[in-house]
Write a structure and sequence with these properties.
The protein is 63% helix and 0% strand. It is built from 19 helices and no strands. The protein is globular.
Length: 499
Amino acid sequence: MGDLKWLAMLLGMEDMSNIWCIYCLLRKLEWMRIGHEKSLLRTMEMLKKLANDPTLTGVARMGVKFEPLWDFLKIWPNFGIPHLHKCIGVFNDIMENFENVVEWKIIIKSPEKMKLYEEFKVIDDKIKQHQDDLTKWTTSTEGNRRKYLLEKKKDLDKKISEGKKVDKYLSQKEISKLQELEAKHIKLVKDRDTAKRRKETISNKLKKYSAGRKLDTKSVHNQLEDHAEIHKLSKGKLFGGSYQGPDARKVMENPRLFFDGFRKILLKKENRNDTVTDELINKLCDDTIKLLELWDTYFSLMNKEKPTDEDIKTKAPAVAEAAVRKHQEVLKNITPKVHLAEYHAVDQFQQLPPGMVRLLVEQWVEVNHQISKKKEAQHSHMPDHQKRANSIAKSQHKSRNPDIIQRINEVKNHKKRGPYKKKKKEQGTSDSVEEEGGTAAVSPSPQKTSRAEAGDNDYDLVASLVNRRKPNSQEPPHTSPNRQHARSKSRSNPPSTQS
């Protein structure tokens, strides 16, 4: 069990899980088509053959980069579907779509921000076009000629630097041609890199806009986040955050509780553009609610403890197809996890013993991911990778040591204050306050009392030492006679108010 990236690495398909399915031979362009046919399942023998064939390149390798690391297991059904990651991924995609529509189609924004957003939407296409132009030119006749002249010049320069004899250097015509081709190559590279820098600039500006909206407590973003927080959904994860399993299940079980509140906020005239209609907002909220309800039905069926034959043979494929079709209608996209949910998860649900799938939900894997991420963040200040790894390992070892765990619990239990007990007034004491109007009696804490008593004792000790040196003094030992005379005079003649 694990997430798709980890499973892809074990199968020799590192960094390919977003492009190729790790269970079958389909890639994203194929599974995006509605009603496509199922493909052949991958086998270890097939993966090894693809990895060791040097004649295969590009798409022909079907996402395989090297031999599988775990070749002692059959892929199906031993490599289980990551159901928890599937649920988290699907939910985050739905929330991201809702947030993007709210951000860029509903909320009022300045013309400058809208211009940046429109440019940001097409900047990736520009970068890809520049990269394609560079690749095409590099493999063209001019590109190959440049490569040949560069290698020839490099070899000749190396011989000259080593003191070897060179019969003939580049001719003036070859040098001019190389300079001309090098200028073309530099221009193509500069165009691509300029587009990349422009994308980074736009992204930073949009992030500043997003950060600035939190300063306005009455902004639409803060209103939506406050509504989410009322229903125990983490406020900081809305608009840019990433939700975990408990958040996903909470919203999927009752999406109307959240999105009906979002709808009321967005329908306010002051919270939206003049061109935004009620129909757009209602359709967005209704589609999102319906989609979450369909996925909730799907995941509830997958996690059913005792599914019936009808659930396994008939209901599971129908529920999966309904959820995926609605997902594609609303989001216009099918991610690898959605593809897994439609085909491979249903097949696994039908082939494994009834109720087995619910035992494969890998909450423990996700918990380990969160703990590891926290540890890495705590040690991120260490630049040396080896020292950082050793420090993380020591920290994890300490956290699992039973003696250390027992000692930590003993210290925590010793410092516990226990349940609150209302204090009653005791007769003859002036420290407690009688309850009036429902106010509980208040008494000074033992720590404050002990400190006060310690201070009195210290003062008495100093006073007794000074009085021992001046036994006939009527005033405190630290008061001079002149100050004593001034005090008596001020008491007998109070200051005039007219002055």
